[in-house]
Write a structure and sequence with these properties.
The structure is a homodimer of 420-residue chains.
Chain A: H1 6-15, E1 33-34, H2 46-61, H3 66-69, H4 72-84, E2 91-93, H5 97-111, E3 117-121, H6 126-136, E4 142-146, H7 156-164, E5 171-177, H8 189-198, E6 202-206, H9 218-221, E7 225-228, E8 243-246, H10 290-306, H11 308-329, E9 336-337, E10 350-353, H12 357-366, E11 370-371, E12 373-375, E13 379-382, H13 391-405
Parallel strand pairs in A: 1-11, 3-4, 3-5, 5-6, 6-7
Antiparallel strand pairs in A: 2-8, 7-8, 9-10, 10-13, 12-13
Chain lengths: 420, 420
């Protein structure tokens, strides 16, 4: 099913029902092929208008704008919920992914007071590992980072093995990513939830590289908690607020460690003692970021319009094409796949391992050919995004990558902080 | 020096060097007199352009925009620093006030491991009290909320008295507000810092109602840590990011409890173990909110242009006029001052206590006369803001308040959530 010529790729683009969605985004003239929408999603055309409306409300209504804005964290959360496979009343948009990870992981530890072990993935995104390390430094607590290899997401079976190595009733929290930030490996979320629950532990998912890209069924899969970025596949813009999910059945037993006035029951009574709000609203802390909420709301609109099934269908086709082209053109140059070899457990991006990946990423950007992230130690990360990447772009990107990998300059290209 | 007629107030407005600054803000046609800039500051004319520039950068540069955006939390912090009396390299703009309070209070407790007592103010803003309550729930810890009365800010002398009632070496943290959110009482910050330090405790200031309104000298006064809102006197817009200050000499001994990748030394090495960044940057958690940073940057520009001395001079004149008018027109209707009676320890707003304050706030908004906040139990809070409130507005606002307080409808006005 994978295009075997540029013409065929172009024909598939023409026939693809998602091709018109590209027009919902701002494109400048020319520019490199953008394979980094999982780092910062493109700007929807609707964003500017959404921000202008907030400015108008602020100018006209001043503080009375809060009559409308106060409920936005929950309202945008509810609009996002279908992308997560979640019913309403369980999702909030607020704070950063790091802060939300902290709030929910700490809440889980407090809800399982006799249990001192946290299980994570040694190959998970840094902020996940760091937040867990920070929480595990409390005396008696222990963080077990499991190393199943860089291209394998922990599944129910692996977790069973890990749990067999701990005493019964020892594990409080299992915290993993739904799609690995580097390899793109997809976790067996239902399997992990099931195994963790049978051991009495809670599960927290980081879905930053999953939400908006792969099908998710948080409710059906039995997830307890999840968080994710607003600025990747959700197109919320640089530093957009993050989202969090807490299953309704868990609201009563989980509470934020950050006791803020926006998570307080009867917020404007301003009473003497903190009492968490009844629903998911208890996980708010401070005043919600209204500009960010409007921008994220505009960011998810194209996703909701297209629907995850159509997006996922195209994503798989783009990733398959990318994998086939990479094998053909980059394999002979010493590159190898650092994603799961089978398409089954692969998410929306692909990792290519090469000793000069860092310099290749630099040169690709410097020559305005392709934008793709470098991830240590040796990975070039490529994300074709179903809403706005075409098959022809994927087709064309790979020879560009080959051109820099085979260029002698790749051996002497300077490293750089952000551009790498 | 206080105007004794509307004509005199108008003449003073004409002569005032700050009057032209009003044009730096967006004003709609007509509208009520706005005395709520300490809840949500007005929108600077520069904000729309600042946001448009971020949208342009996002569209044109995509992920490479981070070359510019990555340093914004510190850069905007440095630009804000003069308003706080702080040298560079000590201020960050990030997260919400609640989250920043939590990070810094937790950091202080961890830096004073043998000490278990937190001292706060029973009349402080809810989120301050709640955050401290949350941190004090750890076994052994104790929160001592001092009640010096609703219109008195704790000073060095009162703190000495409180500390005399604790065992030596017991207090880890003193956390107070620089200007009380309700009464407007101004704290003796230097005195408190001094007394607390002599007892070996650290001091954390909430300056949400102080920054941008009253003169501050964090460096000279010996403050350890401070936080404050971006959306009040700093005009950053609804839910704008907050700021935090940590004295340079304290950076090495204080670290955030939220171990995030943006506070990590060598962030893009993505190494296995969290190591806090060397400077104030260690207090970042997740990805900075670029739209919010741009909006706050535009919000503080008029303040930096006017300078705190000129602003403070006009603020005192506005508050004095308001106090005199309130005494004359509202006193006979049963209202009394709930701010310090002397102008000396008064900040930028005034609190008027009346049994029907809640309904009065509602009616004043409903009739589009005056926007002023109600604060439980019985306070109408009035904030004339030097950058954009005129003496004539202050002059005219008070009879409007008198009109609703003497209207029989005030006894039957419905309460409401946000408008109260």
């Amino acid at each position: 099913m994978t295009a075997s010529s540029r013409e065929q790729a172009a024909a598939e683009d023409r026939a693809c029902p998602l091709t018109p969605y590209r027009d919902l985004f701002v494109f400048g003239a020319g520019g490199p092929i953008y394979l980094d929408g999982n780092s910062l999603g493109r700007q929807p055309r609707g964003t500017a208008g959404a921000l202008a409306r907030v400015l108008e409300e602020w100018a006209d209504d001043l503080v009375q704008g809060w009559d409308r804005w106060a409920g936005l964290s929950a309202a945008v959360g509810d609009r996002l919920a279908p992308l997560l496979g979640a019913a309403g009343g369980q999702v909030l948009v607020c704070d950063s992914t790091t802060v939300n990870l902290y709030k929910l992981a700490a809440a889980a530890l407090e809800a399982r007071p006799g249990r001192q072990v946290i299980v994570g993935d040694a190959h998970d995104f840094p902020t996940v590992r760091y937040v867990l390390q920070g929480l595990a430094r409390q005396p008696g607590r222990r963080l077990r980072l499991v190393d199943a290899g860089p291209t394998v997401a922990l599944g129910g079976e692996e977790l069973s093995g890990v749990l067999a190595g701990t005493a019964a009733g020892e594990v409080a929290l299992v915290c993993l990513s739904g799609v690995n930030y580097r390899s793109g490996a997809v976790a067996d979320m239902a399997g992990v939830n099931d195994v963790a629950h049978r051991a009495g532990a809670l599960v927290l998912w980081d879905l930053s590289h999953a939400a908006g890209a792969v099908p998710l069924s948080l409710d059906a899969d039995g997830a307890d908690m999840a968080v994710g970025c607003g600025y990747k596949y959700l197109n919320g813009g640089p530093g957009a607020p993050s989202w969090l999910y807490v299953r309704a059945a868990r609201h009563a037993e989980l509470a934020s460690p950050i006791w803020g006035w926006w998570g307080q029951a009867g917020q404007f009574d301003m009473g003497p003692t903190y009492q968490p709000a009844p629903g998911v609203g208890r996980f708010l802390a401070g005043t919600p970021d209204v500009l960010g909420l409007a921008s994220l709301d505009a960011g998810i609109a194209p996703l909701l319009q297209a629907g995850i099934p159509a997006l996922w269908h195209k994503t798989r086709s783009l990733v398959a094409l990318l994998a086939a082209r990479a094998e053909e053109l980059l394999g002979p140059l010493g590159a190898s796949l650092a994603s799961p070899p089978d398409p089954g457990p692969r998410g929306g991006h692909l990792a290519i391992s090469h000793p000069h990946a860092r310099a290749a990423s630099y040169l690709l950007r410097q020559r305005r050919l392709v934008v793709a992230d470098f991830r240590p130690p040796d990975v070039l990360r490529l994300a074709p995004v179903a809403l706005y990447t075409s098959r022809v772009e994927v087709w064309d990107a790979v020879p560009h990558i080959a051109s820099v990998l085979s260029d002698p300059a790749v051996r002497s290209a300077p490293p750089s902080s952000w551009v790498t």
